[in-house]
Design goal:
Elements lengths: L5 H30 L15 H6 L2 H31 L5 H16 L2 H11 L11 H26 L3 H8 L4 H29 L3 H6 L7 H10 L3 H31 L1
Helix pairs in contact: 1-11, 3-6, 3-8, 4-6, 5-6, 6-8, 7-8, 8-11, 10-11
Length: 265
């Protein structure tokens, strides 16, 4: 830590726990406790049960979890491909052209996600690109919303790359495509996996744009959580929220291991 005195360290840890516990840890703990409850009339829930999780393992809840995972994986892969390629292409741009390109990629983040959903709904509700009512428009919306983070992550990583590696390869006669595939992309792998993890987590929790676009047969888990709580099934919604958090954390841990291996290469 940057604080060297013992009293300063204790003060820093005290402030950290005073902020972390009530603002972050306690709400999550309440959600976990509620997911096992059938009633909550006092300080703690009563009549613990596993029925909410048993319901998740079958039927519509399991389908919603699978839908969220497939949507997030597809959106994060597309965002990484589009955002990473755009960052590589824009690396040598300078001045107003680079600022315009950065602004275009950051535009979906600067406006509310419900606006992005409405714009896609209007744009793709008529031929020749009729996507309304399909799963593809949901994946497209998630891709649009998270591509900016992949673009920014790869752009920041490119500024930290040592140009000596590619210059050495080019001096030995390596073609640009070989330099890109064998040198630059391996050096960017830690940043690429970090960007993929961020895009995946954001896609798993996206609700506003999804509410405007999802078809009946492609119901992501955040929409199912909203529907359960809106009907008054708070404990079932809490169990769905815990399942969403657990699935997201497991995938992020797997991506973290890939990032660690890529860092050692």
């Amino acid at each position: 830590m940057l604080v060297h005195s013992r009293a300063g360290r204790w003060a820093a840890w005290t402030v950290f726990f005073a902020l972390f516990l009530p603002l972050f840890a306690l709400p999550l703990l309440v959600i976990v406790m509620a997911s096992f409850a059938t009633n909550w009339s006092g300080a703690f829930p009563s009549h613990p049960t596993l029925s909410h999780y048993q319901d998740i393992a079958k039927g519509d809840s399991l389908h919603a979890l699978t839908t969220s995972l497939l949507t997030a994986l597809a959106a994060s892969a597309l965002a990484l491909l589009l955002g990473g390629w755009a960052a590589l292409a824009a690396e040598r741009l300078r001045g107003g052209v680079r600022r315009v390109l950065d602004g275009l990629f950051m535009l979906p983040v600067a406006v509310p996600s419900v606006v992005v959903g409405l714009s896609l709904l209007v744009a793709f509700s008529k031929p020749p690109l009729l996507l309304n009512g399909t799963a593809r428009i949901v994946i497209l919306a998630h891709t649009v919303l998270v591509t900016a983070f992949a673009y920014q992550s790869v752009s920041a990583a490119l500024t930290r790359l040592d140009p000596a590696y590619e210059q050495s390869a080019a001096s030995l006669g390596a073609r640009p495509g070989y330099v890109l595939w064998r040198i630059r992309i391996p050096l960017l792998l830690p940043s690429l996996t970090a960007a993929a993890g961020l895009c995946f987590a954001l896609s798993m929790g996206e609700l506003s744009a999804t509410m405007m676009l999802y078809p009946p047969d492609w119901l992501p888990l955040p929409v199912a959580i909203y529907g359960a709580t809106n009907r008054g099934s708070l404990f079932a919604g809490a169990a769905l929220a815990v399942a969403l958090m657990t699935a997201t954390l497991l995938v992020l841990l797997a991506m973290s291991r890939l990032r660690t291996r890529a860092s050692y290469r």
